Each structure stands twice: as C-alpha cells, then as structure tokens.
Amino acid sequence: MSKQVSQSVAEERGEGSSVLVGRYDHALDPKKRLTIPSGWRKAMGNPDFVYAMPDRKDRCVNIMPKAEMDTLLDTIRAKALFDPALNRVYQVIGSMSEQLDLDIQGRIRISDKLLQFANLKTTVAMVGSFRMIKLWDPAVLGPQDSIDIGELDRALAAAGL
User: Which CATH number fits domain 2-155: 3.40.1550.20, 3.40.50.360, 3.10.20.740, 1.10.443.10?
Assistant: First the structure.
C-alpha cells in the first residue's frame, strides 16, 4: 500500500489556498489506482475531482486541484480571447488533461497514456509541490532518506532566489 517516505505537511491558508509538501511512495493497486493522502485531500478542500496533465518539462504527471487549473486557465484567458494560438493552447491542454473523480477512499485512476508518459508502472513517488502534486517514477528521483542541501541551493539559485 502506501509508504510514507517523508513527513507530509498540508496546511490550509484560507479558503482555496493550500500547501502540499512531502513525499509518499505509493503502489498502484491492481486496477492502477492510487490514493491521494488524506492530509493532501484536506488541504485541497476535500475535492470531488482533480485534474491530471503531463508536465511541460519533466516526465511526470501533475495532479492539480480545481483552483490551480482555474489559475492556469485565467492566465491563458488574460492573454487574448480570440487569439488562434491561445485557442490551440486550450485544445492541446484539453486533449492531454483529465478530470479524475476521487472515490470514497480518495483513490484516482489515471489513464494509461499518462502513466506511460511518466513511466509509472508499479510504484509512484507522489511529491508535494506546494500548489500541486507531481507523480514521478521513483527510480528517477531516487531514495528520499537524506537531505541534499546542494540540490536545494541549485533549485533556489535557478529560480533567482
């Protein structure tokens, strides 16, 4: 089942705003479902559904609550309503994304095409990424049994922080 690799912390910061952090390595069940940790579900407002889409730069799948998808779509909408290139963006995002219902136990079933995109076969590393959850092949991330300050420094430096 689910193995917590590092302590999950999910805090609500007012309505519609949450923080998702931590890592869980979770085995896909025989029906290829995985369970979103209850703390993360609570931080997302106990949604009935989430969105899944491939990551733009990495071979992982992004799981987004409705508020995060709304933010993405608002950003696109703000550019131009009748811009053909932006209409193409809507079409591409729509064709590659999925709305996934959570069952009573908090499980979701991601399509085979998204599982294949991220090379998710038996075990999934679920990583809290503040505003969304990223699903990785655990072999790509490696074990999470220590803290690499150098990795933190490189990530912050790359973002100009």
Answer: 3.40.1550.20
Taking residues 130-140, what's their average pLDDT? 93
The tens digit of pLDDT for each residue in 108-129 reads: 999 999 999 999 999 999 999 9
Nearest 5°: the CA angle 132, 56, 59 is 85
Q: Which helix (H) or strand (E) holds 124?
A: strand 123-128
How confident is the model over 86-98, as a mean pLDDT?
85
Report whether 64 contacts 139 (CB < 8 A): no
For the residues of 27-95, what is the DSSP string, one character each? E--TTSEEEPPHHHHHHTTS-SEEEEEE-SSSSSEEEE-HHHHHHHHHHHHHH-TT-HHHHHHHHHHHH
The most distant pair of C-alpha atoms in the chain lies apart, rounded to whole Å, by 50
Q: Are strands 18-27 and 107-109 parallel, antiparallel or unpaired?
A: unpaired
Interior/surface letters 62-94, b for 16+ CB within 10 angstroms, e for the rest: bbbbbebbeebeeeeeeeeeeeeeeeeeeeebe
